[in-house]
Amino acid sequence: MSQHSADDVVQLIEYHERVWARLPTLEELHWHDFPWPMLKKPSSAEDITYTSISAYINSKYQPDKDKPLKDRIKDHIRRWHPDRFETKLLSKVVEEDREKVKEGAGVVVRNLNELLTRTNSPGLFG
How many other C-beta atoms can be found within 10 angstroms of the C-beta atom of residue 105? Predict the structure, then answer.
């Protein structure tokens, strides 16, 4: 993965926030419509990794970087959690992408939960 400039990261995160605001208003969604919490858009669920999500959430360019990390993680978990995601957004995903999006969202939330666990257990890092 190529190195991203500070401006690139800030613009990507701001873009993701705008997309999250717009998603509920769209009638039809596709894999590529989702603002996956990574610096590089994944092509499939296999591309979504703990390391890539952690790099995105932990970026020093996050606009809410003064917010505690665990709170930022919880905000993302709320977006991607199956109870909310599947009822509000998955039903709008076109049939040919639906299983892929569901799988991707599941990978995201599992990795976010792992990140939260590690954040709440500082002993694991040192």
Answer: 23
What pLDDT, in 10s, does the model give residues 105-119? Answer: 999 999 999 999 999
Written in H, E and C, the secondary structure of 31-75 is HHHCCCCCCCCCCCHHHCCHHHHHHHHCCCCCCCCCCCHHHHHHH
| pTM summary value | 0.90
Does the pLDDT at position 2 exceed 70?
Answer: no
Per the listing, tokens 């500070």 go with: 6
Q: How crowded is the C-beta side of 16, counted as CA atoms within 13 Å? A: 20
CA distances from 60 to 90, 120, 126 (A): 31, 19, 21
Q: d(Cα 25, Cα 80) in Å, to the nearest integer?
A: 17
5: DSSP letter? P
- Cα separation values, 7 from 39, 50, 54, 56, 78, Å: 12, 23, 19, 14, 27
Q: Report yes or no: 70 and 119 within 8 Å, Cβ to Cβ.
A: yes
